[in-house]
């Protein structure tokens, strides 16, 4: 499969426009290979993970966490330089689906909500909001059916239609229009077709809001101990940090994979009986206790490792002819019982 086809699939499953402004989702390292037979998936692009991918002869590596947040000169020894030294000679590509995947609605970042069977699911911490636009123009010729289908399949496009009068109308997210326009202009220029100016109208609906985490209701109320036993089996943990007063029963749950301390207020507003996340620091924990919010800090690693394992499974379905391998990681935070 062509590398550009793999990137297009990743951008459809985890659109880069969903990423947080501070993030670096997308291509981390442009390789020299044009085709891919093997794609490796991991949580962190650590040198040892990349070495395993190279040993397997992966043409493309997908990680969740970026190799860097801002471009850095590779002049200091460390994981960044060692990662480059590992991957560059192989010609493989490196791509990160970070907050673009975290905020993808009903994506694998929502795996815990799926397993818990949550109902009435809502975005916990809203992030980007995308308005829609209607774009119209006139063509004297009929719009090619294959081109119309291609445009309709682009990320953020709701529909493409041409009226009998020759008017072509495209409905899409405002943020997606420039990509749609570039593809349309190239096709019309290549076909020698003339068009009128684009007439763009901003629409109040449909409007899409994406963000981080979810809140929702369990199918039925569960006693606290029964709920935590269920959770422990799902995340593969038999211990975690517990914060705030325990509820007697659990019905409404909020969760945010990765680092979720910033969403404590959002979890409180959602009316959650339990908030599941990772990386809660001391003063945030104090705030949760004072607010009466019960938080289970199960760790950053376990929630996102499972997310990427499931994303690898999704790619097996989407990328026909490409062998997918998930490279398990190791939680850097290990518990020890002092004796």
From TrEMBL:
Binding site for a divalent metal cation 1: 65, 102, 300, 304
InterPro entries per UniProt: DUF34/NIF3, DUF34/NIF3_bac, DUF34/NIF3_sf
GO cellular component, one term: cytoplasm
Annotated NCBIfam families: YbgI_SA1388 (TIGR00486)
Family: Belongs to the GTP cyclohydrolase I type 2/NIF3 family.
Alphabetized UniProt keyword annotations: Metal-binding
The keyword Cytoplasm is annotated on this UniProt entry: no
Protein name as catalogued: GTP cyclohydrolase 1 type 2 homolog
Binding sites annotated in the UniProt record for a divalent metal cation 2: 64
Source organism of the structure: Paucidesulfovibrio gracilis DSM 16080
Complex formation: Homohexamer.
Coiled-coil residue spans: none
Gene Ontology molecular function, alphabetical: metal ion binding
Protein origin, superkingdom: Bacteria
């Amino acid at each position: 499969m062509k590398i550009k086809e793999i990137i297009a699939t990743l951008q459809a499953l985890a659109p880069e426009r969903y990423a947080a402004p501070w993030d670096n989702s997308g291509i981390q390292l442009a390789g020299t290979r044009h085709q891919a037979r093997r794609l490796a998936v991991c949580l962190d692009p650590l040198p040892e993970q990349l070495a395993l991918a190279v040993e397997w002869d992966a043409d493309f590596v997908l990680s969740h966490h970026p190799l860097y947040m801002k471009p850095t000169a590779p002049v200091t020894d460390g994981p960044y330089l060692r990662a480059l030294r590992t991957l560059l000679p192989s010609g493989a590509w490196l791509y990160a689906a970070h907050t673009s995947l975290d905020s993808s609605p009903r994506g694998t970042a929502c795996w815990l909500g799926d397993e818990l069977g949550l109902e009435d699911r809502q975005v916990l911490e809203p992030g980007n909001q995308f308005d829609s636009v209607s774009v119209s123009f006139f063509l004297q010729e009929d719009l090619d059916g294959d081109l119309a289908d291609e445009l309709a399949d682009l990320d953020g496009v709701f529909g493409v239609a041409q009226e009998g009068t020759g008017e072509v109308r495209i409905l899409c997210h405002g943020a997606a229009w420039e990509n749609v326009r570039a593809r349309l202009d190239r096709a019309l220029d290549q076909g020698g077709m003339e068009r009128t100016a684009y007439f763009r109208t901003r629409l109040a609906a449909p409007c899409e809001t994406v963000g981080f985490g979810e809140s929702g209701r369990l199918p039925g109320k569960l006693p606290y101990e029964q709920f935590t036993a269920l959770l422990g089996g799902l995340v593969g943990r038999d211990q975690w940090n517990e914060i705030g007063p325990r509820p007697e029963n659990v019905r409404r749950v909020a969760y945010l994979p990765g680092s979720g301390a910033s969403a404590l207020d959002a979890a409180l507003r959602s009316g959650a009986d339990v908030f599941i996340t990772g990386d809660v620091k001391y003063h945030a924990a104090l705030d949760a206790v004072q607010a009466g919010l019960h938080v289970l800090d199960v760790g950053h690693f376990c929630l996102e490792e499972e997310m990427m394992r499931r994303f690898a499974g999704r790619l097996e379905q989407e990328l026909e002819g490409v062998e997918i391998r998930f490279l398990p990681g190791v939680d850097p935070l290990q518990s020890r019982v002092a004796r």
